[in-house]
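During the first year of the project, the team set up a workflow for recording each protein of interest as an amino acid sequence followed immediately by a discrete structure-token representation. This format lets reviewers and collaborators read both layers of information side by side without switching files. As required by the reporting guidelines, we include two representative entries from the current panel. The first entry is reproduced here exactly as it appears in our internal archive.
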Amino acid sequence: MLIVPEREIGALMTRASAFEAVEKVFAAMASGEAYNFPVIREAIGHEDALYGFKGGFDRAGLTLGLKAGGYWPNNLEKFKVINHQSTVFLFDPDTGKVAAMVGGNLLTALRTAAASSVSIAHLARRDAKVMGMVGAGHQATFQLRAALEQRPFEKVIGWNLHPEMLPNIETVADEAGLPFEAVPLEGMREADVIVSITSSFAPSLMAAHVSPGTHLACMGTDTRGKQEVEAALLAVATVFTDEVAQSVSIGEAQHAVAEGLISEGDVHQIGAVINGSHPGRRSDDEITLFDGTGVGLQDLAVAAAVVDLAVEKGIAIEVDV
């Protein structure tokens, strides 16, 4: 078995590599060559932790495995380690033998950012100039760096429930040489692309806050009950997602479906746009929305890519099992 420790991931996996891996696996999902297994997520009754598994099989890339991990809310305060913890395990699809164990914390952040940037690449207007961020936590910095590489943006605007966190994303804008402006939610009407990355259970961004022609990537809703944007916004947008079943059950679309504003048939796979079987954006006035729920195949795709890089650079640790 090959081991790629968490400490090595930052020097191996680039945003470009993560983008390529996630784009390929979304395309494989849409063509029926890859599928995700049912997600398991449980409160374990210890340290208030949520623990679970996401997995799948990609026939195109011959990638089989799972990500194990979850959320330990007391980690940072009690143990000085991040609250989200995960590890990816890859298996040989021909024999079932374990092939690799890969640190999953940074990979999770990179694959989540790659998913939204894939949606921007395929759905945002080509002339998009103003990048909007709703949310300013740790993951928001990954999202913004990846997003800024997809269009020639000229300005970044941001809103966060706790304004004192906005310097997190202002720093990223500064790195890119772009001006940053803190705005009220109404100010998001200036944005051509909006990424929302919060852990909210009540909508912040409303339909009235979004202008025609905007592309939105909603990346924070991955659990029943979570919600970042008003359900009415999905009713006036063309909705895309990583996996339809997750979108309508635990993603942003769960609320619009429950209210009867859209149906499951109104939610399209982003992979179909990548494959060319869906036209994607049809006009400059169309609002497009990507509901990024996060799927196991994303984790496997980036983990497989990082294993290849680790082997190439002689960093992978080989052990007998």
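The second entry, processed by the same pipeline in the following quarter, appears below.
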Amino acid sequence: MNPDEDPDIIRGEDELDDDRPRSRRRRGVFLLPNLFTTGVLFSGFLAIVSAIDGEFITAAIAVFVAMVLDTLDGRVARMTDTQSEFGAQFDSLSDLVSFGLAPALVVYLWQLQDLGNFGWVAAFFFATAAALRLARFNSRLAVTDKRFFQGLPSPASAALLVGTVWVVEDLGLAAELGDTGAVAVLIITVLAGAAMVSNLTYFSFKDMDFRHRVPFLAMLGVVGALMLAALDPPKMLLAGFVVYALSGPLLTLVRWQRHRRRGRAPQA
């Protein structure tokens, strides 16, 4: 009788050994991009621990490091063709910790806890807005225009909070803020959270191709920006993200006006 036709006959050792590596490969995960994503999660956790210990500058820097790693993990996955559903879910969970919970807890422990219930509610609103922003982004990933984001991205929103913390601490003004300063931080927290769940349009910069040639002046501009950032990192980073946050309303208005003109254009 042919062994392949008899269900009671067990396959040989060689056949079982051939199947096992394929099964293991299917159940595994890609190491390289997930290492960067783990770095994002670690940086967010470090920011929380540093804030608990009162090291607010370290906490702010940790969130910015998480932003850099978050930019790299997706690009590494695309360059090495190691994208996966597991990696996408892991990235979203890490983003929620590093750009939702961590900034909210940092500003709460820094200033908002002095405002009582108003303080923790504002921090919770920011964390919730980050979760909603990520959920909306994931659910519309297949139908949205890759060139634009709907709502302020959570890393940029987190940068507004921790950038403010870094600048004020760097200037040594934290002790002088008082209740007025705490209220200002609360307003920034609420506005940053609201921007994430808004319908404002922001450039995603995902259509930039770094493999193509660029004008020489563009290279000089990049070098100039890096030099300015090196002179005073906290102020320059905060200024850059403030400009990006303000670009959303302007870009939304421009796109709305273009859409309105097209609607009014006479049809042939």
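For the second entry, the following points were noted during internal review. The two ends are 77 Å apart (CA to CA). The chain is about 75% helix and 0% strand. Both points are flagged for discussion at the upcoming steering committee meeting.
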